[in-house]
């Protein structure tokens, strides 16, 4: 995924299915470097990780 698309998904009122290494995640924060984001697993809100935005994959929009 590129930074612009990550920004669109993050700012959208709609819910999107996004994955990191095949695991469904939420985007918590996009970093100013334009290359990384803080994310957490959809089922475990406590664990947050900093990952490369390029490693994120948009699966589909949840209706």
TrEMBL record:
Q: What is the scientific name of the source organism?
A: Ureibacillus yapensis
Question: Where does this chain mainly localize?
Answer: other
Please indicate which superkingdom the organism of origin belongs to. Answer: Bacteria
Q: Under what name is this protein listed?
A: Small, acid-soluble spore protein, H family
Location in or out of the cell:
Spore core
Give the family, as the similarity comment puts it.
Belongs to the SspH family.
Set out the biological process GO terms recorded for this chain's protein: asexual sporulation; sporulation resulting in formation of a cellular spore
Q: Give the CC-aspect GO terms.
A: endospore-forming forespore
Q: Which Pfam families match?
A: SspH (PF08141)
| Keyword DNA repair tagged | no
Keywords on record = Sporulation
Q: Which InterPro entries match?
A: SASP_SspH
């Amino acid at each position: 995924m590129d930074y612009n698309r990550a920004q669109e998904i993050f700012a959208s009122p709609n819910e999107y299915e996004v994955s990191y290494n095949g695991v469904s995640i939420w985007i918590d924060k996009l970093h100013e470097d334009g290359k990384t984001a803080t994310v957490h697993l959809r089922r475990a809100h406590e664990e947050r990780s900093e990952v490369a935005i390029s490693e994120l994959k948009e699966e589909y929009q949840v209706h």
